[in-house]
Design goal:
alpha+beta; elongated; seven-stranded antiparallel sheet; Umud Fragment, subunit A; single chain; 2 domains; 385 residues
Length: 385
């Protein structure tokens, strides 16, 4: 029996070493960043391992408990980081939420996540006890992340290299170590939940908090590590105190769900009310098509006395107790450092035809989020009928 296990460890480690060499060659020589190429890179050795040793589908002891804690803490992590974005500001995503992005990026990225997590799970199950196998798979999957985002940064200069290391390399290494822990305890599901919530936002969510290079590196490494220790503490406490109780039957389950829901409500309320630097508003008409349409939502930055407004910007202002979102087309100096502003909807034939005073301008449009404003628009129309 011992010989058989030693033989399997040997085969697994040989496969992983070959895979490591190939991912390193691709990262620095081939430089292929395509989704399907990376999917094949992971899927082929995964299929070989499953073909030789079969699929290890046995459920882990903490499958449901860990999945719950990972989901809750990851949602909490997202709420915290995006709440900080209300203070530090946001940056836009290069990907747009449309059919092209779905086909070219979202679906392939989902498949890449699936095959990498299946490989991670198989290595943990089949190479249980092999420290070398664990180290190899962490480096391999970090190389996959590095390859995937290689074209995002200009690696020909020092600035691009530092950003690449801080934003991609270091967080990816920590992420893969953490996911090893989750997979070992709970199987593939906790890791999939973690990655679907955190990684997929890179190609789905239209805005990201703009923390700056080094603060972003700290947040994307330190907070997930802290989250892992909190989950470990909760699992240990849950096991000690509730040995025969299902996670859904515990008081902590209900309490945490309530806290998360309240946090989401508070975050949305702060964003909508523009209590801090940024606000959000739903678009109720098609006057700005094709820039955005009815049912879209925009994130805007509040203006103050020192804000420099320019022709071409999309501004949010009050007119007859209504909030209007139109493009600024003319600025008139009326003396004494006072200005009046004229706007026009992109889809309208004529300008709005009325002057806007500075005091009535609320903010400047920064980002748009498609479709999510529909519930607010419909509800508002029902109320005002």
């Amino acid at each position: 029996m011992l010989k058989r296990y030693k033989k399997s460890y040997l085969v697994i480690n040989i496969i992983l070493i070959l895979l490591l060499i190939f991912t390193c060659i691709n990262l620095w020589a081939l430089k292929n960043t395509g989704y399907w190429f990376l999917i094949a890179t992971i899927a082929i050795p995964t299929a070989i391992l499953i073909g030789i040793y079969g699929y290890e589908g046995k459920s882990r002891r903490f499958k449901y408990e860990l999945s719950f804690y990972v989901f809750i803490y990851t949602i909490g992590f997202l709420i915290m980081t995006y709440s900080l974005g209300l203070i530090f500001g946001f940056t836009g995503n290069v990907y747009k939420l449309n059919l092209t992005n779905l086909v070219n990026n979202i679906i392939p990225y989902v498949m890449l996540i699936l095959v990498t997590e299946v490989l991670r799970y198989e290595i943990i199950r089949k190479g249980d006890g092999s420290t070398l196998a664990y180290i190899l798979i962490v480096i391999i999957l970090t190389n996959i992340d590095l390859s995937l985002f290689r074209d995002t940064y200009d690696l020909s200069n020092g600035d691009g290299q530092i950003k690449y290391i801080c934003v991609i390399a270091i967080p990816s290494l920590f992420k893969n170590v953490i996911l090893m822990y989750y997979t070992k305890l709970g199987g593939v599901y906790p890791s999939l939940i973690y990655r679907f919530l955190l990684d997929l936002k890179l190609v789905i969510v239209p805005i990201f908090p703009n923390f700056g290079l080094y603060f972003e590196c700290i947040i994307n490494t330190a907070l997930p590590v802290l989250m892992m220790f909190l989950i470990h503490f909760n699992l240990k406490k849950f096991e000690d105190e509730n040995e025969n109780i299902n996670i859904k039957e515990s008081k902590k389950y209900k309490l945490v769900v309530i806290i998360i829901m309240l946090s989401i409500v508070i975050f949305v309320n702060i964003l909508v009310s523009c209590t801090l630097k940024y606000g959000m508003i739903a678009i109720g008409s098609n006057s700005m098509v094709p820039e955005f349409a009815r049912g879209d939502a925009i994130i805007y930055e509040k203006v103050n006395a020192s804000t420099n407004l320019e022709i071409g910007q999309i501004i949010i202002f009050k007119k007859d107790n209504k909030t209007v979102v139109h493009r600024l087309i003319q600025i008139v100096d009326v003396g004494n450092n006072e200005y009046i502003y004229y706007t026009k909807g992109d889809a309208n034939d004529n300008p709005d035809g009325y002057p806007i005073e500075r005091k009535n301008i609320i903010g400047v449009c920064k980002f748009k989020i498609k479709y999510i404003g529909f519930p607010s628009v419909v509800l508002g129309e029902l109320i005002h009928r």
